[in-house]
Amino acid sequence: MNKPLKIIAILLASLALILGLGIAYLSFVFDPNQFKSQLIDLVKNKKHRSLRIDGNIQLNFFPKLGVSLEKIKLSEFESTTQFAALDRAQVSLALLPLLQKQIVIDKVSLHGMRLRYQRDAEGKSNIDDLIKQDPEVKEAESANPSEKQMRFDIEGIDIAQSSFEIDDQKGELKGRIHDLNLSTGKISDKNKTPIKFSAQFQFDKPKAEATININTQLRFDIEQKILDVQDLKTQIAGKLGANPFDVQIDTSALHLSQTDSTSEQIKLTAKLSGAQELNAQVILNKFLMHDKDLSIAEISLQAQSKQAGASKQVDLKSSLKMVLDTQILQLPQLTMQIKLNDPKLAQADIVVPVTGQLSANLKDKSLNTKLDAKFDETSLHTTVQVQNFSNPAISFNVDIDKLNLDRYLKSTTESAKTDTSKEDDLNLTALKSLNLDGLIRIGALQVKNLKINQVALPLKANQGKITMNGIAAQLYQGSVAGSMGFDVDGNHFQMQQNLSNVQINPILVDFMQKDIVEGRGNLNLNIKTHGKRVSQFKDNLNGSIRTQLSDGAVKGINLAKSLRDFKAKILNKTDQQQAANQLEKTDFSAMSASINFVDGIGNSDDLDMKSPFLRVGGKGLVNLRNSSLDYTARATIVNTSTGQDGADLAQLKDLTIPVRISGPFDKLGYQLQFAQISSEALKSAFKAKAAPVLEEKKKELKEKVNEQLKDKLKGLFGQ
């Protein structure tokens, strides 16, 4: 070796020896713990937080420059409350790259890290001061940009047994993440590294607990700013409320860059168990994000729920477009099929195909959708607008040409009694969050065999109060107008309805299967009720029902026929009991009556029925508590020259005869209470009406006897 090279080699060796001896000396002599107080004061002055280091600070100089700390605590901003704590932390840097102004992080290790995050309803958090950049630092960075790009090279990251407490009032999130573990392989430019992450979640808002496990491989390209995610498998299992759930997210490849992000397919599957079983699968095909535009060639959703022997299934497909700047999302070609299977329905299987479109503004938190459906004999068109997703205000319009609910609802005419002891209390508190304002229009509606046309149902719901003001419809040659309301607090229900110029008989026959009254007229209802259970609604019913009818008949009894039978039994005065006979009826030209209800007991005392030969008044009770009637009508014969068999009842003119109608609603009986007519009234009526007839009969008999006597005398004397 020539002499200059030897000199250079000796100088380098000497320099390395001196440097090594210096580092060794610093390692033995230098104690970084003497700087604890300066570090604590620096944090106090710069960040207004209290730093506490109960463990040792240890520095390593060769072959790697590193620092390790133990038992560290940091307070909240200008407070003694603990914000963060750390059992042990270690960070090491490769030494030689520092000579080239490159930072190569060799290893990061954090054990027993505990953080506490808080944010109030206005959005102010306990880390705002930490993430706010110092203006001096920002100015220095802009004035002295790095001459060389930082080299990104981490031997590995190890985070173990860490936890986070979260109390986010604005995001309505409160809970704890614990047993957090993260481990990686070598993370460097253009190097594929495995990633493993696990943690447990326990939240009070929303009520949920879960364990999450993520396994994947990452590849970074620092220069091109590209991240490739491969073989991603994410599993989240836990409980939502009291119901177990399991969610899996998978993709074979996800490419992320500043300009383009793509994936051939991302799949999510979810399962919720419990009283209601739910299974769902979402597949995103051909995911593409270019610049600030997101598109998905096809979103496929399949969801199925099962509960108490019934099932619901939804199949949805659509393309998706979203502009990230404006945060406007669109589903321009939405197709959906809803399948219902419920043995409790008259038609167990129902299939509803739906087409339409949807757009949402995620920045303004608003949504607009138009949907069309055609199923069975029904065509439906609806528009829906939603404002404020966190507390949605929903406005809508629904137009239906024809809807036959009886096609789907089983008849409840069976007389089986409900065991109210097993009936659950109504729990409708969830309706308090409902905020609705809309209109439902139906061209032809059939429900409970009641046939209604041109139905208009304005619906509003706010803070647990649900109202339908301005109800209008056409039914049975007349019209209906009114309102209904329900208040979740106390389950209070009220209804005002006016039926004008309707045919009452087909309403009663179709809706109540009661063929008891004929006629045309008006019916006014003004009732209210409440109850913890549905069965209590009739017990607590208050209000009134009023009716006015003309040119009709009361079915089940023929008063004219019954009174003729009475005339034949007028002397023994026995009551006549008979069951209702739908072939019999009593005609009337006008009838009005009202029922006033107090706690399920209705009182009626103003019956006024007029027919050509009768005037009928009456009073009695309608008992909704036990579904029975006890009513006494008082029929007075006023005209015997016309009307239904009137001339045959001339002898009973001006008599008032009680007719008792009583029994359960489904088995009413009629009793003509002849015995309650006083003897003197009977005698007077009979004498006044029968005497002229008897005198005439006596005269006819006398003349007849005289004629017969003459004939006998002639025979006797042979003339």
TrEMBL record:
AsmA domain sequence ranges: 1-606
InterPro entries: AsmA, AsmA-related
Protein name: AsmA family protein
Native organism: Undibacterium seohonense
